[in-house]
Automatic annotation (TrEMBL):
A Pfam family recorded for this sequence: QRPTase_C
Listed GO MF terms: nicotinate-nucleotide diphosphorylase (carboxylating) activity
Catalysed transformations (reactions): nicotinate beta-D-ribonucleotide + CO2 + diphosphate = quinolinate + 5-phospho-alpha-D-ribose 1-diphosphate + 2 H(+)
Domain Quinolinate phosphoribosyl transferase N-terminal, first and last residues per copy: 21-104
Protein name: Nicotinate-nucleotide pyrophosphorylase [carboxylating]
Pathway assigned in UniProt: Cofactor biosynthesis; NAD(+) biosynthesis; nicotinate D-ribonucleotide from quinolinate: step 1/1
Organism listed in the record: Methanospirillum purgamenti
Amino acid sequence: MIYFTDNDIDRLIEDDLPAGDMTTFLLDLAGKKGSISLIARNEMIACCTEEAVRLYKKVGLEIGFFVPSGTRMQPGEKLIEAHGDAAAIHIIWRTGSAMIEFASGIAGRTHQLLTAARKENPSISVAGTRKHPPFVKKMALKALMAGGGVPHRTGLSDTILIFREHLLFTGGYEQLPDVIRSLKEKMKERKIVVEAHNMEEALIAANSGADVIQMDKSQQEIFSDCAGKCRAINPNICMIAAGAINDTNAAIYAKAGADVLVTSWMYFAPPADIKAEIVPVM
């Protein structure tokens, strides 16, 4: 579960309401009753409905119905229904809808990628990078998971991932055996991931004791050959395909022997299309 604090929810409202809703105020809508329903216009995987519900409740609306994140929706199906003060409805109308559309777009694209890859390898994982747009980490990660993906790294604090850029300061790939030995002494319970750009670097990493090898922008044939040779060294090694992974090549890398596909492609999905129906309640 990705936890959104009360401050996160308040900020979403505040960002769109820095000094009140001028139009609603001038039209004197406060005190009038209405209802709002969000309805899917196309096939989608719902996401961030729980956060939208919290937005609605923050402004005093009562929730009649909502579907949980991860629910597969068909056109015409209802995601959320709420009722209450008409002014409150207009305060959260756009913010709630936009959040669900943005997150559901990511969830749908993640599912699309996972479906394509698992046709070739039913056990493959799709992992989202930390290269999501700034300031939307929680929303992006929740959407990724709603679509069946997993976070590759939630940040710099949770994994040991050695890039070529790190090795520039430690003696290069030639010194990788000493680097990995030192890391395993310091952090015995963590797996060590090493990025490689070619066969030579991957084999050095495998021979040096890396638990995971992340091949960056490797051609299918090279990746397949590399995966076989690395597994000959360590049958339990995990092989990651990363770099420009999308719906056109996910199945290719799955067939080539990838255990995990790492990508940021899902984060830049078009938003889902949602219709908001707002009606007066007498």
